[in-house]
Design goal:
Layout (H helix, E strand, L loop, with lengths): L7 H16 L6 H8 L4 H6 L3 H12 L3 H7 L6 H18 L1 H12 L5 H24 L8 H13 L16 H19 L6
Helix pairs in contact: 1-2, 1-4, 1-7, 5-6, 6-8, 6-10
Keywords: DNA-binding, Transcription, Transcription regulation
InterPro entries: DNA-bd_HTH_TetR-type_CS, Homeodomain-like_sf, HTH-type_TetR-like_transc_reg, HTH_TetR, NicS_C, Tet_transcr_reg_TetR-rel_C_sf
Organism: Thermobacillus composti (strain DSM 18247 / JCM 13945 / KWC4)
Length: about 200
């Protein structure tokens, strides 16, 4: 593999994403990233300026995900449909970028100094979800108690769908592919029931 070339930045980002997801940001060194990418160690400084900027570039390239962009643009006239599109967009992102999800979950759990970067990219989606939840109650199609409690419950339901390996002993999933195929439909129905959706 060439040490440099037009795709060296992509190779570095792919390697960093893999290693950050597997070992965490702090435990991953620049040397490890370059070895994984088959790139000269000086190229991270040349192309990115350091490991911190490699981390930031991962989010710039992975987000916003097309389906998530479409979900955020969904008209708020139909809050239930807005919720459906947000759930579908997030699930699509989880399935297409499992390593990014792992990185985001790790960084959130340790309350890292990179938290603000993650919020910058993730919060527009969650703010839109919150708007849909609030608008649905205003229109009388959602019925729930605490806005904060219901938002955190919905986020928990959405964000832990990629943990079937961890929770495997508790589950009865014979075919993960079939599980993920039905995930969006069943998760959306679960979330809407949790919001007290009164529509069809």
């Amino acid at each position: 593999m060439k040490a440099d070339g037009p795709d060296v930045k992509t190779r570095i980002l792919t390697a960093a994403k893999k290693l950050f997801a597997r070992h965490g940001y702090e435990a991953t060194t620049v040397r490890q990233i370059c070895e994984e990418a088959g790139a000269n160690i000086a190229l991270i400084s040349y192309h990115f300026g350091g490991k911190e900027n490699v981390f930031a570039a991962l989010f710039e390239t992975a987000l916003p995900h097309r389906r998530i962009e479409e979900a955020i643009a969904q008209p708020m006239a139909d809050p239930a449909e807005a919720v459906r599109q947000i759930v579908a967009g997030v699930v699509a992102f989880q399935l297409s970028e499992p390593e990014m999800i792992a990185i985001m979950q790790q960084e959130t759990m340790i309350d890292s100094p990179r938290r603000d970067l993650i919020r910058k990219h993730a919060f527009p989606v969650w703010r839109r979800l919150l708007q849909a939840i609030e608008e649905g109650r205003k229109q009388g199609i959602f019925s729930y108690g605490s806005k904060d409690h219901v938002l955190l419950s919905v986020l928990g339901a959405i964000l832990f769908q990629n943990k079937i390996d961890h929770f495997g002993p508790l589950l009865d999933i014979a075919d993960p592919a079939e599980y993920y195929e039905r995930l969006t439909e069943e998760l959306t129905a679960f979330v809407l029931r949790g919001l007290g959706y009164t529509g069809a």
